[in-house]
Amino acid sequence: MQPVKRIEIFANYVELGKILESLEKAGVRGHSVIKDVAGKGTRGTITNDLAMTMLDNVYIIAFFPPEKLSLVESNVRQTLSKFGGVCFISDAIEIETTRCVG
């Protein structure tokens, strides 16, 4: 097991490319994106009943080494401050596994 940081971002689909670029520039090597996210938060209710995909929200999750925290935070903060969205960074533990060959 090794400690890692988990970053979770909720943003508009239109800004997805810019957010992923900011993560990559900070050295985050991988990510997952879930499209068509709906929910309710402090900023209101987000529904997924719009016919236009460009107005949908996305959820981005990625993991990175703790030593990259300040660079990731700086890059993501700049992007979200321009285009909107919310971000959470927390501690996580990665369980190392072996690759199975069948």
Structure report:
There is one protein chain. It is globular and about 40 Å long. Strand 3 and strand 4 (44-46) form a beta hairpin. It is α+β, with helices and mostly antiparallel strands. Helix 1 packs antiparallel against helix 2 (69-83). It has a single domain, classed as Alpha-Beta Plaits (2-Layer Sandwich). The longest helix has 15 residues, at 69-83. The strands form 2 sheets. Strands 2-5-1-6 form a 4-stranded antiparallel beta sheet, covered by helices on one side. Strands 3-4 form a two-stranded antiparallel ribbon. The protein is built from 2 helices and 6 strands, in the order E-H-E-E-E-E-H-E. The protein has helices spanning 16-25, 69-83; strands at 2-12, 32-37, 39-41, 44-46, 57-64, 86-94. It comes from Nostoc piscinale CENA21. InterPro entries: N-reg_PII (IPR002187), N-reg_PII-like_a/b (IPR011322), N-reg_PII/ATP_PRibTrfase_C (IPR015867). Pfam families: P-II.
Q: Key terms for this structure?
A:
single chain, 102 residues, alpha+beta, Alpha-Beta Plaits, four-stranded antiparallel beta sheet, two-stranded antiparallel sheet, 2 helices, 6 strands, globular
